[in-house]
Design brief:
Helices cover 68% and strands 6% of the residues. The chain has a four-stranded mixed β-sheet, sandwiched between helices. The chain starts with a helix and ends with a helix.
């Protein structure tokens, strides 16, 4: 047991001190901290609210438009200007936009002056504001009381209801859906890079030891089974350390910074579904690391030359790429048939089930079943990895076919 821990500790220390580990971890930590302070970063590059001019010769109309400034732009500063000054200031970038309003025969005509193309949403907002003011003018001319005007403007109520067994997703806003999609996209990329990184590391390390013949000296003091288990455990421990660092930094960012206020500003309120996505993502990240590290150990063990390692791990790379592309496709349609099927296929499920967890229609038992299938597959891969390592540890046959033949003909 002492030799196991000695090999484990050596592998762990070397991996944690590696520049690749420190650089990648540092980059992701910086990104997490930046995401927790995105509102402050935006403010650094924002010179303040927009400066908007109101162009009109009617004082009452100016007051009416200015009273609706919150509807037009909540952060903007409004001021009354002439049309020529508005054009000059906009051209000289002293003013962002100008709203022109002219009253003629109880009808209001509006125009938006801007350096850039005006969005349809902004145009609709201004049109709605002017329509409201025009209605008030018409009501005043017709001697309608405020209550009569209110009744005249009353609109029918239209509501939506999601028919789902999961009640907490009925009132999911568009902002919340967008936020969940961002979390899923970022999670997919993080899953892919972490899983492939550590899988390649274990395959490369085993193949390097065999190629350099270092293994001939190692097995004189450590049994092949103890050595391979310690190596795998060391790499997995490094991966778990990195995952723990990311989780801790994310929690610190959430607690220490005004993330809740930032979410409120973006009209985002993380709920049960967001929590489910994060939890399933962490679980599938761990399961994916285990599965791919065990598979990489097999591929590294049957590789006799370090020059052949890229060719040997090609099947693993293809599997991971399939999982990545299916999951990216499934972000837009997490309930598609191909998504449901691949979410239960080992090696693909860590990516795809993570995406399916963003759907309100996924059941808890489906997530649990997917994880169990992946864990069972991982145990089988570990058994094959140990067996293939013991059989090929002192074999330097350049043929992968010969290595596979020894593995399945043993005993």
């Amino acid at each position: 047991m002492d030799r196991f821990f000695a090999t484990f500790a050596l592998t762990y220390r070397n991996k944690v001190k590696a520049k690749s580990f420190l650089i990648f971890t540092g980059i992701v930590v910086i990104l997490i901290l930046a995401a927790g302070n995105i509102n402050k970063i935006i403010d650094l590059f924002n010179n303040g609210g927009n400066k908007i001019g109101i162009v009109t010769n009617n004082d009452n109309l100016y007051k009416a438009v200015k009273s609706q400034e919150k509807q037009l732009d909540d952060d903007a500063t409004f001021q009354k200007v002439s049309k020529n000054k508005a054009k000059k200031d906009i051209r000289n970038k002293k003013m962002d936009e100008a709203y022109v309003a002219n009253l003629s025969d109880n009808k209001i005509n509006g125009k938006i002056l801007s350096r850039d193309t005006v969005s349809a949403q902004k145009e609709q907002k201004y049109q709605a504001v002017l329509s409201t003011i025009q209605t008030q003018i018409m009501a005043s001319n017709l001697n309608l009381s405020p209550s009569e005007l209110k009744s005249l403007q009353a609109q029918s109520n239209v509501s939506t209801q999601m028919i789902s067994d999961q009640q907490h997703n009925k009132n999911l806003s568009e902002a919340q859906k967008t936020f969940n999609m961002i979390v899923v996209y970022a999670g997919i990329m993080l899953l892919f890079f972490i899983i492939i990184n550590y899988a390649n590391q274990i395959a490369m390390e085993i193949a390097t030891e065999k190629t350099s013949r270092v293994i001939e000296m190692i097995i004189t003091s450590v049994s092949p089974m103890t050595h391979i288990l310690a190596k795998i455990a060391g790499v997995i421990a490094v991966a778990l350390t990195q995952i723990a660092i990311f989780v801790i930094v994310a929690l610190i960012s959430y607690i220490a910074f005004d993330v809740k206020e930032m979410f409120d500003g973006f009209d985002v309120h993380p709920g049960t579904l967001t929590t489910q996505i994060i939890i399933v993502g962490i679980i599938n990240l761990i399961v994916g690391v285990l599965s791919y590290v065990f598979l990489a150990a097999i591929l590294g063990a049957i590789t006799s030359r370090i020059e052949d390692i890229n060719q040997s791990i090609m099947p693993m790379s293809l599997l991971s790429m399939i999982g990545l592309y299916v999951s990216l496709y499934s972000v837009w349609n997490p309930d598609a048939l191909i998504t449901k099927i691949t979410s239960f296929i080992p090696m693909l499920s860590p990516f795809v089930m993570f995406v399916r967890s963003s759907s309100p229609n996924v059941e808890i038992w489906e997530i649990v079943l997917s994880v169990i299938i992946s864990l069972i597959t991982g145990v089988i891969l570990l058994w094959i990895a140990i067996r293939s390592y013991k059989d090929s540890i002192l074999s330097f046959d350049r043929s992968v076919k010969a290595s596979m033949k020894r593995l399945f003909n043993r005993g």
